[in-house]
Amino acid sequence: MPRRTANPGLSSGLMLLLLVSALFSGTAAADLVSGGKAYESGDYDRAFKDYLELAKLGQPTAQFNIAVMYARGEGTRASDIYAYAWATLAAENGVEKAKALADSLRPKLAPGSEQIAADIEAQYGHAVLDQHLLPKIVAEENSGLGDRARCHPQHVYFPVYPPEAQRQGIQGKVYVEFSIRPDGRSRNPRIIYAVPRELFDATTRDSLLHTEFAPAPAGSRPVECTMFFQFEMRGPGSQDYPRLDKFVHDTLNKAQSGDPGAQMLYGMLLVGLPQLNKPRSQALPWFLKSAQAGVPIAQFQVGYSLLKGWGCDCEENKGLDWLRLAAQAGEADAEVTLAMYALRGDPDEARQTQAKLWLEQAAASGNHDGQLYLAALLAAAPGAETRDPKRALALLDEVFRGVRDDPTAFEIRAAAQASSGDFKEAVKSENKAIAEAQHLKWDLAPLNERLARYTENQPWYGPLLEF
User: Fold this and answer.
1) Can you give the pLDDT at residue 404?
2) What is the DSSP string of 265-277?
3) Lower Cβ count inside 10 Å, N or C end of the chain?
4) Residue 406: which of 268, 152, 131, 205 has the closest Cα?
């Protein structure tokens, strides 16, 4: 059983709760909001551009807005044909007022125009979107809920509330994804969303690394998991669960009303709260609605689900398209995922270079995982042209600020030191990694294998982090 702190709820009233609260409220619908603001300010060119991008993803409100702007000649040349086409698409997607607009435009169309409009509709209709973009949802009983049972912790480690946050009276929320290996311990916790940024990240990673999950038979595949953390400056009580139920209910109501931020959040709740115990197939439609509204985190979730076959058929091409959309919007987790996808199997130099470019972008934004994965690549890449152990060590200076006793960071440092020819220091760093891994009850075989090479003055090249 992992080391636990005394229950601070009995003394200082501080406790880490595996609950949930609002992760974001005013920024989730950025693209729809920016389009609306641009329109209200008279910047029709910007509004048209924003709405058109979302309309092509199948977002109904954006499709209707594009139809109106074509009808009025706002931000584009006036066109009854294009207005009719987009209004028809919006009506098919459930926008009632779009049907009225299409009906009013139809008499104005010149002979033969309806076929031109139909050709336009065919480019962005359901059939095309289904083929090239939309996930095929898998029935609940086939959606992998059984594997996700391993995501339920057996013994939760409650770390000390972050002192800086305690001094300032700050509370926070964190959504994290991680993998569980057959040894029942988590690896590579990735902070997907945090409010406020960074303040609770290290504490969340610390909790997951020390938390125990159910082990699996040797040779079992790792399981990908998600979890919500809420940091509150009070003790837990029976009132927490009714509060949680109310929050889930209120979030669902907002999601059903069409709020893209609430749609994203409700999807997170379904897959991140053990209390709800829902399969990914129920969360994915909410992620998709939010993604079509232009929310980068939701686009990442849809893309990642398609790559993994979480709640849907595994369709890599669609997944990569969604991830690229998210990455183009600056979503660092999408950049990291694209990089790790490029590094699958036995990557050639071109794929290593592609991965390095994605990781450079993520690292440049200050993303912890971007820095960590880039350091791992530079330390132990199979291709000599990609390796840069000196830079890897410099990146690790930043990484170590966000970790406490994660063996992975020490492993990367050991690999970088060995790649630089400093085998004495590499042995020290690898021994430190082994000591930490032993404390966390990890499978030590891969670490001992690398230690043996460093002891024999040989570097080790290969993937230090798995995708």
Assistant:
1) 64
2) HHHHHHHH-TTT-
3) N
4) 205
Q: Which residues contact 208 (CB under 8 A, 6 or more apart)?
A: 176, 178, 186, 189, 227
**If you compute the radius of gyration of the chain from its CA atoms, what whole number of angstroms results?**
25
Q: What is the SS3 assignment for 214?
A: coil
Residues 6+ apart with CB under 8 A from 160: 5, 8, 203
For residue 425, the one-letter residue type is E
pLDDT above 60: residue 73: yes
Low-confidence winner among 339-353, 416-430, 449-463 (lowest mean pLDDT): 339-353
Tokens standing for 26? 């005013």
Q: Which amino acid is at 333?
A: D
> What residue ranges do the domains of the chain occupy?
8-24+138-292, 58-132, 332-455
**pTM exceeds 0.85, yes or no:** no
The full DSSP string for 136-149 is -BPPGGGSSHHHHG
SS3 content of the chain, % helix, strand, coil (to 5): 60, 10, 35
**332-455: what fold?**
1.25.40
Model pLDDT, residue 141: 44
Task: Round to whole Å and give the CA distance between 60 and 292.
Answer: 9
Under 8 Å between Cβ of 175 and 192: yes
CB 190 within 8 A of CB 333: yes
Q: Which of 206, 203, 212 is nearest to 185 (CA)?
A: 212
* pLDDT at residue number 233: 67
Fold category of 8-24+138-292 in CATH:
TolA/TonB C-terminal domain (3.30.2420)
Element (H, E) at 328: helix 316-328
- Contact (CB, 8 A) for 186 and 211: yes
DSSP bridge partners of 230: 17, 173
- Residues shown for the chain: 467
DSSP 315: -
With contact defined as beta carbons under 8 Å apart, do 71 and 101 qualify?
A: yes
Helix or strand (DSSP H, E) at 233: none
| pLDDT above 70 as % of the chain | 88
